Every structure is written in structure tokens, then in C-alpha cells.
Amino acid sequence: MTQTMTAYVLLAALLFVLGLYGVLTRREPIVVLLCVEVMLQAVALNVLAFAKYGGFEDVTGHVFVLFILAVSAAEVAVGVAVFLALVRQRGVDDVVKLDTLHAERQEE
Amino acid sequence: MHALLAVPFLGALVLACIPSAHMRAVRVVGVLWCCVPLAVAIGLFVQDDTGVSYTVHAPWIAWTVGGTAVHIPWHVSLDGFSMPFVMLAAIVCAVSGVAGFLLTKRWKAFYVLLLLLTTAVFGVFVARDVVLFFLFFELTLVPMFFLIGMFGKYGRERAANVFLVYNGIGSAVLFLAVVLLIVHAGSFAVVGTPTMGNSFTSDYAVIASNLAAMPHDGMHTVLFWLFFLAFAIKLPVFPLHTWMLRVHGEAHPAIVIVHSGVLLKMGAFGMLMFSFVLFPEVLRGAASALAVGAVVTIVVGAVMACAQKDVRLVFAYASLSHMGFVLLGMVAMNDNGVQGALFQLVSHGLISALLFFAVAVIETRTQTSDIASLGGLGQPMPFASAMLMIGALAALGLPGLSGFVGEWLVLVGAYDQWRTLTVIATGSVVLSAVYMLRVVLGIVFGPPPQKHRADVRTIEAFPMVFVAACIVVLGVYPSVLHDVTREATKTIVAPYEQLVDVGGGV
Amino acid sequence: MALSGDFIAFVVLASAIVFGVLTFLGSGVIVHRVVALALSFLGMAGLFVLLGAELIAGIQVLVYAGAVSIVIVFALMLTPSHTHKPRTPTWRALAALVGCGAFGGIIWAVLLERTTNGTPTDALEFAVRDVGVLLFGRYALALEIVSVLLTVALIGAIVIGQKQKGGAQ
Amino acid sequence: MTTITLRLSDLVIMAPECILLLGVVVLTLADLWMKSSRTSIGIGALVVLCGALAAAVVQLVQETDATVLFGAYEADAFSSLCKIVLLLAACGVLGIAIGTPNETHAVGEMYTLYIPALMGAMLLVSSREWMTTYVALELLTISTIVLIGMRRAAIGKEAAMKLIVLGGVSSAFLLYGISFLYGCTGTTYYEVMASRLDMGQDASLITIAFVMIVASIAVKIALVPFHAWALDVGAGAVVPVAAFLSVVSKLAAIILLWRVCVDVLFPHAADVVVDVLFVLVCVSLVVAHVLALRQVTLLRLFAVSGIAHAALLLVPLIASGTRPDVDAWTIWLYYAVAYVLMNVGAFAAISLTHTTGTQPHVHQFAGLVYRAPWTAVAIVCIVLSLAGLPVSAGFFGKLFILLDALSQREGTAGIVLAALIVVGTVISFAYYFRIVRQMFWRPEGPVPPSSVRTRWFAQTVLWGSALGSVALGCAPGWLMELLAQLIAHTVVS
Rg (Cα) of chain D, in Å, rounded? Predict the structure, then answer.
């Protein structure tokens, strides 16, 4: 059965790395945001696998995951709000670049 | 003795509160206040010509690191060693304060900064605690930076920046050295605590006695060179002198008076106090190399001075050359050498003050310091020209004036150890006659200028006469200074000579 | 690993999730991407059930597969057509690939090395009640903070999302 | 299982946070119903902070040492002191904010949202349990994101977006690390976790978890390989928010790192963690200063120079190695106070001379001495402290840290740290004195002089910080003794 846990944990690691790769390579803000969510999901999976197979007689892990879900939902809410506001102000083509701050640095 | 520190600082505060619209009030109060420290210093000097020193030693800051306590005491002392420097600083700052009259604007800023600078300079000379010394040393940096940057010629800002960078590096090195010194040699056992017996202090006396008791090791060498580097920038020694040229060339003469008259001396003071006195073993190994450096500084200064077209730069290189003499005297580390170095420091401070005051007077009238465009000022400005002559003669080492005594003692001190080097250094004295006379004769004689040039006013004449009198007194009757420094010199030199005796001479 | 029903379910769900994430990262069509991601979230809920966390699986379906996906769909639909996909420079993608690969490799190796002595806690009885007890007991403080956090996020989303007053840039 | 939950007495232990919570509720309602003016909300927020400050001081004086919920939250002298520092910093930030021309969508929220952010920071200080830590951290981050995103200009939204993504990634790493630790121990409480971790069995897993946790907190502090976001985000925020980011958020993250290291990490893998931190600190000390040389926009400049100060703040932690003693804590607190004073003062100066609608630029100080000479003097005091010149708090802070590093860490490590600090200080002269140069040597700039004189709150903050810096520079022993006395019993126990 321990191997089952290993399978879960390895899957979590794979998802975490995929999410990280997405964050590093994608440019669209919403997509990046969702990649972060994928990373958090991987963590949740990890925790639950430990909770079941770790041999602890309580559900601390479940509470742990609940907090992760709640906080990431809040993050998405704010993220989408910011994204929409940006789109409204700049138009979508500028949004995907998000380079103004960089450009300012280069001007100097 | 705290009056020395308190008076100028209070003055800065008082002046800061006078609205700058009242220009006259600012100037009068400023000048007068600059003279108060001089009065205080003279008072102390007169009271204390027997060698009894004023010392205050009180706890200041204490905290613990890793179970061991660190103490930074407030230890200030005015002894035979610091007395000449304090007197010099008081005189020069007063002279500079009067020279501030020649500025055209921003008197308030000038006097506030000058008084702050004076406080810090006194602090440097009386501090007998490593951290306190460093504190005051750093504190001189800031007002000086502003003074250079706010008053002077077109290139003053660059000069101020270069000043800040060089001296910033110097004080960073010094900072490191101070901290290392405390950690390395500041520990002492507290009486009555046998177990956790260690406790650090930054008191100079304790550190010195600890170092003397310690066996020589690599850390001593490191510390010696760190301190040397830090102060060599300030002094300056040959390859590190470029910032000083800029300051001398660009800042207002009133500021150059302080800078050349006092700030350079802080370098010598620190070098003697930290590098040479604390680590005689290292000095013994390095003395010859340093002497070569000193002579190179002397010669380079003299040669370059001959080639300059600007009065200020001539004087700047002359200062470099004279500081070389100081270094030479200090590394010789015998009675004559150190006495000579101290004498040379004081005398050079006075001479610089006189010369640059004259430059200030002339520059205010002619708006230039280029030798070629000056000339024939002897006729319209006889008084200023005479003062310039006295300064120049003193600088080139004419017997009977103060410059001679210092150089002579240094050369005598150095001759025992490095004959060839001493001969070369003596040769540069001839060069000094060349460049000084070239400049002064060029300015004083020749066809008189077309435009009318007014001679000095009373307020300008007074400090010049005073300084010139000091120069003459010191030249004719050097014991005024010698009596004060004799005891101090003996204690400074003793450990080194002991070392040399044991080791059988160098 | 025994070829139990649980295991088959795990393999199926895991492949679904990984496929979903890969499609999300790779596909060019926006609708495909969102659907793929929703699929992954659902698959994740399935795994949670396998792990005995039905409550969390339910929340996962509601919050992620439901709310988050829908919000994202709305956000994407509200924005103008969004066809062109900015390309990341190849070197950057490569560097990211190498970095992530190294990181993943290390984690993977460490995880394979580890052996646990714990036996699985099968189907926790009254798990939901226990979660509640913990949540309002030991973790009550965190719960309070989360409530503040959600309020702040709500207010923030409203404030940021509201129409601009005046002609500010 | 008996249900144990928050009791009324626990709320008393958490009084500073509770006061903040109550205050924010009242202020939000007042904002909704009373249509009050912006300034009055700001002053209200200031009053709330002062209330919390009073509560923290009372706790400190009474030597409260209590825990809540099996030790998830602990109020001890060190936490109280940290909270006082954070609260003072936040008061300064609010002082800067009051009277700044409004650049945001919101009216009251611009002030009220500082309070939950500060609450997150304060809970971080006291938290001794990972879940509480995590949500407190997120409360801080998300409130800050909203504060940044409320700026009307798109640049603020962009900065907020960046922070969301970066904060998310770093939280993900933190959680991933925690999840491994949880997997090894089955608990989220620091103390229990530390006692259950077994380096013999899971050495590599624990080590990698530790490294991930340290790295993720390093992102929050913006230590050097993870620093890029701080510049962009700092530049995108309005001045008071940038001040909040650079002072309160950064200090909170540093306290968190300190806490976590001492409670969980050091007992098990001190050498690895210290080595990682040592590298991060050394790199930060050098790179931050060099980067700062190239910045002209003030907010970027202070974002970067803040990194160097943050690295300096970590030196006592790594100098002491495995177990920081009372002195390391004291020195840390001293420099934290100095850091708050000089940075809050600097941002007050930026805010005072800043014209709305532009990015704060070093030219805005041009010729300040002509139109507001006293303000210029105060700014000089602050610059001295920033550059670590005497007589200022910054100088003694650096001196203490250096002495500590050299006497605690034998051999090359201490000397390397000391040398880097000193080199960095010299470099910092160059960019800090740029401000002074502008003030004194440049003719008057384009900024009209109006705002400098009229903004009393910001003026008070500026003068408070300047005088505080100088006072601490003149009598540093006083604060050191006080701090050492206050935290002595906490650390020893």
C-alpha cells in the first residue's frame, strides 16, 4: 500500500512541476494564474495522500486542504478582477505583454 | 574640555536658527563664533603647558554579544599628543571662518557646516576610544562634502563626489579595521567574573595594552595595513592623492584652508595613533618600504608642483610633498622623526592657511588663480604680497620660519636609518624653492595690472598677521611646541625603540 | 502494486488530469483549454474521493470545476477575441524546461527513496464531523483569518472591478 | 474529542489584532453610511492603529506570555516588540497616505485596507502553526495586492497582477514544503513538528522541504535571485503603498523567516539552512547595491536598497548559526527599528516632494533647500541613516551587526560578511547622496513648492523619523539595553 502513496505523491510532483513550467513559460495573465492553481492543486493532492497513507489518526490534512482551497479561491477572485480592470483600461493586446514596468526600466 | 566640542556645535545650532535673510547677523555671529573655540583652546593651552592632561572617561554604550559584553566608553583626552593638533585646528578653523567673509552667498550654510566640521575635527583629535574616533572621523565627511560641493568653482560638484568616493572607501576600510581591532584585541577579563570572563571594549588604552601583551600574528599585519590604507587616502600618500588635487583646485579657498590645514592632519594623526603605535612589530618590517613610499611622495609632489600652471595646484602638490615628509618622520619612529613630523604637521597647517588665505584674497580681486594671468600684484597689493611671500618662504624651509624646523628634524630623524633616501628627500627641498619662488615671484613682481586692485581690508589682514606671527614664533622659538609634545613623543616611540634594541637595530 | 479497482481508478483519473493539464498548456483554442482544465479539476476531485476526502471532493467540484472555471470562462468571453498567442522565446522555454526538469527530478528521486511505515487509514469514520471539530477547534484562529481574508478579497474585487469614475487614465 | 475553541480570554491575549479587526469593521461601516471625508477615515485608521499599539505596549509591560489554541498563537515579549515596530511603521505609512492626492478608485478603502494587511503581518509574528501562518501571510499579500490594484493608473493593476502570480507561486512552494513536513510528522504545529521530525529517517525529504520553505520566504523578502518582482511592484504602487510593501511586508516576512528558522528549521538542519541563507544574503548584499546604482526612479531605488537592508537584517540570524541568543535578537530589533525609521522617513520625503501623476524621480528633490530648507535638513538626517554614516541609527545598527557577525562567526564566513557589508555601504553612498546632491546643488526643480509645507501628517512622519534616527544615533545604548531587558526572559525560556 505504501507504493500507492508513492504513486499519488509522484503524480502530485508531476503536476506541481507542470504548473511551474506553465508559470515560467506562459505570458497570458489568466493562464499563468491558472497554472498557479494547478500547483496548489498538486499540493492539495500531496497533503491528502499523506493524510491517508501517513498513518496519522486524524484529519488535519483535510483541514489543510480546505484552507488551501479557500485561499486560492480568494486569489482567483482578486486576480480575475484585476485582469478585467486591466483589459478595460488597456485592451487585451497590451495585457498579454504586461511589459510597461519593464519598459520603464529600460528607458532609464 | 568638553567646551571644545560643545561650543562649535552650539554655534551651529544658534546659527541655524537665525533666518538667512539677516545676512549681516549671520556673518557677524558666524565669524565671532568661529573664534570662540580658538579662545577656549588657547585657554586650555596656557593652563596646561606642564603636560597634565585633561581626560574624561565615562561609560557610554554597552551591550552584549554572544554572552560577552561590549563596552564603548566615552573616553576623550587632551594630552601632549593631541594638544598641538587641537591648537592647530582651532587656529585654522578661525582663519577659515574669517575667510568665509570672502564668499558671495550662502553664508549661513557655510558657517553652520564649518562649525559642525570644527566639532568633528576636535572630536577626532581628542577621542581616545576607537569607535568614538571613527565616529568623529566619519562626521567630518558630511560637512566637508557639502562645503566642497556648495562653494567653489565650476568643477566643485565633481570634486565633492570624488572626495566622497575616495574618503568613503577610506572610511569603509577604517570601519572594517575598527571592528576587527575590537574583536581581535578589545577583549579583557572583567574582574570578579571568572567563567564568562570575556568582555570587549573599544577603549584605545586597553586595546593598546592588550596588543602589546599579545604575540605577533597575521591579524596584526592585516590590521596595520587596513589602518594604513584608510589613513593613507586621507593624508594622502602618492598614488592615492588625486582626490585632494581636485578639492584644492575646485573648492573655495576658505574651505581649502580647513581641508589642507586640518583634515589632512587627521590622516597623519590616525596613522600614527593606529598603524604605527599599535603595531610596532609590523612597522619594523615595513618601515623601509614605507620610507620609500614617503620619499616618492615627496619627490613626485615637488616635481609636479614645478609643472603646474595654477597657483592652487602648485600649493596642492606642495602639500603632497610636505605630507611625504610627515610620513617619513613618522616611519622613522625615533624622537627626532616623530617630533619633526608633528612639528611639520602644525607648521604646514599654518602655512597652508596663510597661503590659501592669500589666494582667497587675490582670487576675490582677480577672479583667477592662473599664474600666467596674475602678476605685478606687489604694487597694488603690497600687504597681501608680503603675506604670500612669508608663506612661501616658510614652505620652502627658510631657517627662522616654522617650515624649516619640521623638515630639518624629520631629515635628521630619517638620516640614521636611510641615508640615500634622506639625501633624495633633501634634494627635493631645493625643488621646493624652485616652485615656490616661481609662483610667488610671478605673482608679486612683473608689470602691474591695468585694473585697480584694492589691497586687503582690516578683517582680512588680521588673521593673516596672526598666522604669520605664529609661523615666525614657531620658527624662532620651536620649544613652544616641543615642550608640549616631548613627553608624548617619548611614550609613542618607546615600544618601537625597545623592539629595535632587542632586535639589534634595523 | 495490486491491480485493484482503486488502482485502475487512480490510473484513469491520473491520466485524465495530466492530459487535461497538458492540453491546457499546449492547445491554441481557448475553449479547449478551459474545458481541459475543468476536466483536470474534476479528475482531481475523483482522486480526492479515492483518498477518502469526500467533503473536499465536493468542495473541489463546487469551487474549482464550477466557480473558478466559470469565472474564467466569463473573463475570457468578456474580453475581445483573443486569438493571437504571445510566444515565449525558445531559450526561455528551454531554460524553464531544464529548471523544472531538474527540480522535478530531485523531488522524484527523493520521493522514491522515501519509505513510510504508516498503514493507510482506511475510510475515516465520521471524517466530515472530525473536519468540523478541527476546523472550529484547533484551527479556529486560521478559520477566522480566512474569513477576514475572503472579505478583503471580496471588497478588493469589487473596488478594483468597478467602473472608473471620471476620466482617469 | 472535546471541542476546544476560542474563548473570551483568548481574545484578550490577541488584543492588538482584535482591536484592529473591530476597528476595520467600524471604519468600513462608517465609510459606507456616513459619507465621511477621506481624511477623517484616514485619521480614524490612525486611531485604530494607536489603540492596537497601546494594547501591544500593555502586553509588553505586563510581560504577557500566553498561548492560544494549543500554541497556534503565542504572545510573548519578542512578538509584542515586533508588533510594536510593525504598528509604528504602519502609523508612519498612514501618516504618509493622509493628504496624498487620491490616485485610486476608492475613497475609504485606501485607508481601511492597510489594517487587514497589518493584521496579517502581526498574526505572522505570533503564529506558531503552519495553517495560521499561511493564511496570515495570504491575508497580508492579498490585502497588499488590493491596495496596489486600486491605483487608477494601469501600471498599478499590472503590478498587482505580478504580485498575485508571484505571491501564488511562492505560496505554492511554501505549501509544498509544508506538505512534506506534514507528511513526515502529521501535524502543523511548529513545536510538535520540531519534536517529531526525524532526520535519520527522512533526511533528504526534510532538507528539500526546508530549502523550499526558505526559498519561498526569500521570495517574499525579495532576496536577490528572487528580487525582480519587488522592483516592478514597488514602482507600480502609489508611494504610501510602496512604503508599506518595503517596510511592513518585508519586516513581517523577515520575522517569519526568523521564527520558522528558530522553531522548526534550525533544530534539524541548521547547517544546510544557514548555508543557503548565507549565500542568499551575500549575493543580495552585493547585487542589490549594484542594481540600486542604476535606478533613477525613486520607488525602484528604494525597493532595491530595501533588499540590501533586508539582507543586513538577516545577518544576525545566520551569524549566530544554530541558536540565536538574546544579543542577536536585540541587535536585530535595533536595526529593525532603525530600518523602519529611515525607510518610512525616506518615503515620507518622496511623498512630500512628489507631484501627482508622475513617477517619483530623483529630480523632484532639485533645489529643495531653497524652498523648504528645514525639510531638506530632515531628509539629510534620513539619508545619513540610510547610508550608515554617524551620527544615526543606521550607523550603530550596522556597527552592531558587524561586531556580531565578526565575533560570532569564526573564520572566513564572518569576514566575508563583514567585507561585503562594508563594500555595500560604500556603494550605497553613491546613490543615496544623489538625493542630497539634488537638494543642495541643483537649481529649483519643476515641482511647485506648495505640497511640501502643507501636509502636516507627512511632515510629522518625516520629522519623527529624522529625529528618531539622530536620537538613536546619539544614544544607541539606551534602546539596546531596553530591548535586551525586555526580551531576555522570552529567549532564554
Answer: 22
D240 in C contact zone (CB under 8 Å): no
C1 shares a domain with C73: yes
Task: Let me know: does A71 contact C146? Beta carbons within 8 Å.
Answer: yes
Structural domain includes residue C84: no
- The answer to whether residue D491 scores a pLDDT higher than 80 is no
Residue D142: its chain A contacts at CB < 8 A?
Answer: 74-75, 78
Same domain, C63 and C135: no
Q: Give phi and psi for B10, each to the nearest 5.
A: -60, -40
Cell triple for C113: 527513496
Span A5-13, mean pLDDT?
Answer: 89
Query: What pTM, to 2 d.p., does this model score?
Result: 0.88
What are residue D19's phi and psi, to 5 degrees? -60, -40
> Is residue C102 included in any domain, yes or no?
no
Residue at C145 is within a domain? yes
Indicate if C69 and C135 belong to the same structural domain. no
Residues within 8 A of A (CB atoms), C 40-99 only: 40-41, 44, 47-48, 51-53, 55-56, 59-60, 63-64, 67-68, 71-72, 75-76, 78-80, 82, 84-86, 88, 92-93, 96-97, 99
- Looking at the structure, tell me whether residues C3 and C73 fall in a common domain: yes
C7 and C73 belong to one structural domain: yes
Tell me whether chains D and A touch (3+ CB pairs under 8 A).
Answer: yes
Q: Is C116 inside a domain boundary?
A: no
Measuring CA to CA, which residue among B417, B358, B356, B425 is closest to residue B397? B425
Closest by Cβ to A75, choosing from D155, D168, D182: D168
In whole angstroms, what is the distance from residue B101 CA to residue B119 CA? 20
Give this complex's ipTM: 0.83
CB contact under 8 A, C156 and D135: no
Domain ranges, residue C153: 131-169
> Looking at chain C, which residue has its C-alpha nearest residue A90?
C169
What is the reported pLDDT for D322?
Answer: 67
Q: What is the pLDDT of residues C28-67, one digit of tens each?
A: 777 788 888 889 999 999 999 988 888 899 999 988 877 7
* Distance from C-alpha of D106 to C-alpha of C81, rounded to nearest angstrom: 30
Show the low-confidence residues of chain B (pLDDT under 70): 1, 48-53, 64-68, 188-198, 452, 500-506
Other Cβ atoms within 10 Å of B168 Cβ, number = 24
pLDDT value of residue B77: 82
Same domain for C71 and C7, yes or no, is yes
B274 Cβ neighbours under 8 A, 6+ residues apart: B177, B181, B227, B231
Asked if C1 and C73 sit in the same domain, the reply is yes
- Nearest-Cα residue of chain A relative to residue D105: A85
C166: left (phi over 0), alpha (psi -120 to 50) or beta: left
Tell me if D105 sits within 8 A of C159, measured CB to CB: yes
Question: Which of residues C14, C44, C78 is at a domain's end?
Answer: C78
* Single residue among C62, C78, C94 that ends a domain in this structure: C78
What is the model's pLDDT at position D278? 92
Looking at residue C29, which CATH number applies to its domain? 1.20.120.1200
- Sort strands B198-201 and B187-189 into parallel, antiparallel or unpaired: antiparallel
pLDDT in tens, B256-285: 998 988 888 899 999 988 888 888 888 888
Task: Round to whole Å and give the CA distance between B26 and B8.
Answer: 15
C-alpha D180 chain-centroid distance: 28
Distance CA B385, CA B382 (A): 5
Number of domains in chain C: 2
Checking if the pLDDT of D68 tops 70, the result is: yes
What average pLDDT is seen over chain D? 87
pLDDT tens profile D191-226: 899 898 887 777 888 999 999 999 999 999 999 888
